């Protein structure tokens, strides 16, 4: 046993810490003994810091290494801490060759695992792997969702930015006038009425009555107006033939039919021209 009180304190805290780590994991000394083939008596001595019971420190270091591995601790770090704690133990040998031999023997020997129960560090590693897989999967899903949302926003932005502009350009495009042979506003409207049968006619030109009489068969009348002609009454619509600015107009009615309130103006003339 070491004579240095500080060394004794270090050893005590070292053994107590190992016991706490074991109890936190819910592992019994028998479980470790069965798995590592280390006598339970030596394991208890390590935790109690009973170095009178333990073999030489070189062998004790091997026990400590196997103990730490089974608990899932850093074996090299735990052994170094044991070396520091046991630095005052006069039984520590001075031969580095023996130390290397023991380390090689313990390094190549894997502690057997209990049947059906994986060691604690295996359970810890498996949980870590599962957690990593879940995190990676969530990260991938989040990346895909963000990318998909961004693509939809870009498409919506493109549609929103191009369609209105196209509509605005379409609205701003000057309308190409349809080529027509419309009558200039300065040119008067000339209406020729040819009676092919007797017909009673009441006709206004620019709001003034110009005919209110019966036109006998063979009668031909030509009148002018600035804006429009208004047939208030045609007693026999099929009995007259109309020509406006040298364009023959369709019959306003059939033989014997009475037609009222028929307006003939420039728009009507353009309509007739487009339909012929």
Question: Which overall shape is indicated by the principal axes computed on the Cα atoms?
Answer: rod-shaped
Main sheet: which strands, in order across? 4-1-6-7
Beginning-to-end CA distance, first to last residue: 129 Å
* Assigned CATH architecture of the largest domain: Orthogonal Bundle
Radius of gyration: 58 Å
Number of domains: 3
**Main pleated-sheet profile:** 4 strands, antiparallel
The beta-strand count equals 8
What is the CATH homology-level superfamily of the largest domain? lambda repressor-like DNA-binding domains
User: Quaternary arrangement of the chains shown?
Assistant: single chain
Which spans of ≥5 residues are poorly predicted at pLDDT below 50? 91-99
Instruction: Give the rounded overall mean pLDDT.
Output: 77
What fraction strand? 15-25%
The helix count comes to 8
| Helix content estimate | 40-55%
Describe the structure.
- It is a single chain.
- The model is unreliable at 91-99 (pLDDT under 50).
- Strand 6 and strand 7 form a beta hairpin.
- Helix 1 (5-24) runs antiparallel to helix 5, helix 4 runs antiparallel to helix 5 and helix 4 (57-71) packs parallel to helix 6 (96-107).
- This protein has helices at 5-24, 29-36, 40-48, 57-71, 75-85, 96-107, 120-172, 266-275; strands at residues 189-195, 199-205, 208-215, 220-225, 228-234, 240-244, 247-248, 259-265.
- It is of the alpha+beta class.
- The termini are far apart.
């Amino acid at each position: 046993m070491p004579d240095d009180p500080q060394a004794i304190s270090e050893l005590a805290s070292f053994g107590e810490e190992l016991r706490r780590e074991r109890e936190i994991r819910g592992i019994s000394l028998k479980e470790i003994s069965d798995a590592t083939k280390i006598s339970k008596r030596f394991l208890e001595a390590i935790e109690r810091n009973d170095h009178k019971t333990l073999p030489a420190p070189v062998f004790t270091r091997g026990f400590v290494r196997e103990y730490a591995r089974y608990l899932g601790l850093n074996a090299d770090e735990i052994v170094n801490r044991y070396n520091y704690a046991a630095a005052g133990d006069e039984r520590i040998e001075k031969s580095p060759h023996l130390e290397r031999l023991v380390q090689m023997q313990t390094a190549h020997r894997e502690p057997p695992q209990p049947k059906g129960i994986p060691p604690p560090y295996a359970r810890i590693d498996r949980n870590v792997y599962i957690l990593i897989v879940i995190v990676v999967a969530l990260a991938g899903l989040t990346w895909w969702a963000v990318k998909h949302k961004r693509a939809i926003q870009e498409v919506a932005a493109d549609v929103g930015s191009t369609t209105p502009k196209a509509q605005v350009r379409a609205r701003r495009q000057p309308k190409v006038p349809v080529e027509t042979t419309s009558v200039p506003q300065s040119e008067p409207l000339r209406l020729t009425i040819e009676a092919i049968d007797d017909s009673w006619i009441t006709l206004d030109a620019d709001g003034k009555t110009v005919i209110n009489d019966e036109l006998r068969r063979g009668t031909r009348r030509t009148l002018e107006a600035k804006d429009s002609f208004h047939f208030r009454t045609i007693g026999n619509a099929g009995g007259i033939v109309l020509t406006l600015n040298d364009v023959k107009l369709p019959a306003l009615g059939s033989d014997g039919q009475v037609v009222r309130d028929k307006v003939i103006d420039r728009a009507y003339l353009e309509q007739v021209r487009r339909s012929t």
